[in-house]
Design a protein that fits this description.
The complex is a heterodimer of chains A (267) and B (357).
Chain A: H1 4-34, H2 36-39, H3 42-50, H4 53-58, H5 69-103, H6 106-109, H7 116-150, H8 157-181, H9 188-211, H10 223-227, H11 229-233, H12 239-262
Chain B: E1 4-7, E2 12-15, E3 21-27, E4 30-37, E5 41-49, E6 52-66, E7 69-80, E8 84-88, H1 95-102, E9 110-115, E10 118-119, E11 131-134, H2 146-155, H3 163-171, H4 185-197, E12 203-207, H5 215-230, E13 234-239, H6 242-248, E14 251-256, E15 259-265, E16 275-281, E17 298-299, E18 306-311, H7 315-322, E19 327-333, H8 337-344
Parallel strand pairs in B: 8-13, 8-14, 11-12, 12-13
Antiparallel strand pairs in B: 1-2, 1-6, 3-4, 4-5, 6-7, 6-9, 9-10, 14-15, 16-18, 16-19, 17-18
The chains are: A mainly alpha (267), B alpha+beta (357).
Chain lengths: 267, 357
């Protein structure tokens, strides 16, 4: 089902982008989580309370967040980490499939003695490894900054683990969507544009759903809703999300396999 | 498993599937057939040894359209096990489309393609363990070195002995430690050839393998191909260079505008008697009637005063005939494939018989 040769090569070929994105995520955690001590100042909380509810909920903020480092990190910091990581997940997954078509290496890889689904699954495995590495690093960075610097004693390791796990699952779902669509594309540029567009679309859909009651249904189209990072950081992970996100991931791979098996690699 | 047999002695094509239901295998010259009737009872075990050969490549009424654009039309041919089969045609004739169909990169609009008797699947598979392929346009991962890439390719076939790979690297004079992005077209081609040969395939599909290689390396490549063929490897060799075909191929298929127009031994290749003559007369150009026997003489648009003619005259007769004229310049060469095709086959006349075994 898998070809380790392909998986390890894909990890090798994408290690630089993984390092860059992991670095960005760690910097975001460092800057945002490190700012918690300033953000819990009464003046800042009063300022947030002065904003219209619609705006604060649209940006994923609530005054309680600035009292609780766990809610703050899960609901606000990880929200932006998820925005970035989901864009990277879709760029990575899309690039894993479209790069061979774009680069012209299809004739090198797809004439080997294994079916296309083995190639795709091997690439999916490398995607899983890289996403796991990114989120483990993000979790370790959060723990290190939260426990040792920002809020020793208050930072809940288990709840944060669940929040990071939900973020990880949301990225898998995003990757699954990219795996489903990318066999239809022939350019890395196309899959990158799709990743950026979808990443922001998920974020905006969830924001709009929070801002306007009439648009609440839009939340069902966003991975941010299913991840429910605030809920997970508050000790109440969204069980439906835990089920839906892996299902989307697997369904995306199945659809991607069907498309890839039917794809014609014209010159 | 379906096996179509070609009796090498008389070239008769024997599709066994039409005779009885069987399972069979072909190994070391022995054909083993478990002969069954009505697909139920084992009646007989037949073993044969002789001049039987499984066709390495076979296409039956193979066609490919890209929307309304023509790819190939109704191509039927068989490449016998162990032969070097040339596949020639001008650019855009359908050579690469045929090869992509054989490799399962695209699916046929009609007909079917088989490799070693097995229908080519679109999604690849174990069948390609026995196949090596050199594409016409080579692209690899730019951040890898040549050695990384060869090791990567070797990993697909669990090749552990790199002695053969090192030998190929030496013979083709490749520096494998440079990054792929720094390689010239010729060096990329060398990597392409080595990665296709490293697992010692039984069928080698080469799409314009000589392009981009300098003459000495090209000679070495042909030597390697001939050596592999002597060891029993079947070569399917696509090119638009006539000289390459004449040099190494046993049989040749010519394709034009998507249709096969000739399949046969290389010494029966149409157009082998044609010579391209470029000449300049010392005085006035003789009348058309005086040069009638030579062929249709045309002035070269880029070189006023110089004329070109494709002549079918035998060499001695040609030399005698040319000696009648007062010439300032004379060059006699082999014409390009395009020139032969243009001379022999008027554009868009299509191919007649498109089925060849």
């Amino acid at each position: 089902m898998l070809n380790g040769n392909i998986s390890s090569m894909e990890i090798n070929l994408n290690r630089r982008s993984l390092l860059i994105w992991t670095f960005i995520v760690v910097v975001v955690i460092l800057v945002y989580l490190g700012s918690f001590t300033f953000m819990e100042e009464p003046e800042f909380v009063e300022m947030i309370e002065g904003y219209p509810d619609m705006l604060t909920s649209g940006l994923g903020m609530s005054p309680e967040m600035f009292d609780d480092v766990n809610l703050y990190h899960g609901g606000l910091v990880l929200l932006y980490v998820l925005l970035l990581a989901s864009i990277y997940a879709m760029m990575l997954a899309g690039g894993l499939v479209t790069r061979d078509v774009d680069l012209g290496t299809v004739e090198f890889l797809y004439t080997r003695p294994f079916p296309r689904n083995v190639i795709l699954l091997s690439k999916v495995f490398s995607f899983l490894v890289m996403m796991t590495l990114l989120w483990i690093t993000a979790y370790l960075a959060s723990i290190a900054i939260g426990l040792m610097w920002v809020a020793p004693g208050d930072f809940d390791v288990y709840d944060q683990f669940m929040a990071h796990l939900m973020g990880y699952l949301a990225c898998l779902a995003a990757g699954g969507i990219a795996f489903a669509v990318s066999p239809l594309l022939n350019r890395v540029q196309g899959s990158t544009s799709l990743a950026i567009g979808l990443g922001f679309a998920f974020f905006l859909l969830n924001s709009l759903a929070s801002m306007y009651e009439q648009l609440e249904f839009l939340k069902y189209l966003s991975i941010h809703y299913y991840a429910d990072l605030t809920g997970a950081a508050g000790g109440e992970p969204f069980i439906t999300g835990i089920i839906v996100m892996p299902v989307v991931f697997v369904a995306g791979i199945v659809i991607g396999t069907i498309f890839l098996n039917r794809k014609e690699f014209t010159a | 498993m379906n096996i179509n047999l070609t009796l090498a002695e008389n070239g008769m094509f024997l599709p066994l599937t039409q005779l009885f239901v069987y399972d069979g295998s072909f190994k070391n010259g022995w054909l083993v057939i478990v002969h069954r009737i009505f697909d139920c009872e084992l009646l007989q075990l037949i073993t044969m040894r002789g001049n039987y050969a499984v066709n390495a490549v076979e296409t039956a009424r193979l066609g490919k359209y890209y929307g309304k654009s023509r790819g190939i039309i109704d191509v039927s041919m068989a490449v016998r096990d162990g032969e070097i089969f040339g596949f020639i045609g001008p650019n855009g004739a359908g050579k690469t489309t045929t090869i992509r169909l054989l490799l399962g990169l695209i699916k046929p609009s009609s007909g079917e393609a088989k490799i070693f008797g097995r229908r080519v699947p679109l999604s690849g598979g174990k069948l390609y363990r026995r196949v090596g392929y050199v594409p016409a346009e080579i692209s690899y991962y730019p951040e890898m070195t040549g050695r990384d890439l060869l090791e990567y390719a070797a990993g697909f076939y669990a090749v552990s002995n790199f002695q053969w790979v090192e030998e190929l690297v030496d013979r083709l004079q490749l520096d494998p430690d440079k990054k792929v992005r720094t390689y010239s077209h010729g060096n990329l081609k060398k990597v392409g050839i080595i990665q296709a040969l490293l697992h010692k395939p039984q069928l080698l599909i080469l799409d314009e393998p000589g392009s981009g290689l300098d003459p000495l390396i090209r000679l070495e490549m042909f030597k390697i191909i001939e050596e592999m063929n002597q060891k029993g490897v079947t070569i399917f060799f696509s090119t638009h260079v006539l000289e390459e075909v004449e040099r190494i191929c046993h049989r040749v298929a010519m394709i034009k505008e998507g249709s096969l127009i000739h399949v046969g031994p290389v010494d029966q290749l149409p157009g082998r008697d044609i010579r391209l003559i470029i000449l300049k007369f010392a005085g006035r150009k003789p009348s058309t009637v005086a040069m009638e026997k030579l062929g249709e003489v045309e002035e070269l648009p880029s070189r006023p005063g110089y004329y070109q003619v494709l002549s079918h005259l035998p060499v001695n007769e040609l030399v005698n005939y040319l000696s009648r004229f007062n010439l300032d310049y004379l060059r006699i060469t082999d014409p390009s494939l395009e020139e032969i095709f243009f001379d022999l086959y008027e554009p868009s006349t299509g191919g007649g018989n498109n089925h060849y075994a």
